[in-house]
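step=predict obj=Shikimate dehydrogenase n=250
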Amino acid sequence: MVDILLRRRFGLLGRNISYSFSKGYFTEKFDNEVFAGNSYENFDISEINYFTELIKNNPDLKGLNVTIPYKEQVIPFLDKLSKKAALIGAVNTIKFTKNGKLKGYNTDYYGFKKSLEPLLEPHHKKALILGTGGASKGVAFALDELNIPYTFVSREAKENIIDYDLINATTFDNFQIIINCTPVGTSPNIEACPNLPYEFFTEKHIAYDLIYNPAETTFLKKAKEKGAVIKNGYDMLIFQAEKAWKIWNK
């Protein structure tokens, strides 16, 4: 018999999220009789201002995951942030508390850290983070916890950010971990890849792509051709999803 307390609704907040990992993952999880009574659905909104209406129309929601492009934009709509989410400046998990408040958490950093750690060798000393969006903030926080210095890369150079045109052989000598936090290369645009001089990847490098569809992006393929260790974002998603599940249930 299903415990009535387990009859709860969860979902994913984002835009153009029909491809969603989270819906498939949690739906499969909830098919197990241990979790029977739970449900998970996509909440695809065209702009963040519709979030208030979404919450009002779904008073029985217990938790949400948050994906592109709302990891930063959702913060003003929340009542409270965890200490780490506040430090990171991005939210990918929302818990509906017993008193009806919305509390934001970041489990991206945890998922990334847990999936990167097994790959690290003593020569992996510094990282390049491609992109400056919400996902990159969780990655940066994880690197801080791992004591790995990093530099952001964007299409426009700003303070503490370099642009792609500055990346050369010397850059690859100095940075042994290259992390793609941009959506470039996501299905269906699988031929696209970040603008890098891929010839400078070596077996001393890690190429990490937060994208999981396709499983091997053009970014990863090109890095692998030069001997780099490669990793996609699938394990990160598993780890962050399970962390979110624990938060919703604590």
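step=describe
The chain has eight helices and twelve strands.
step=end
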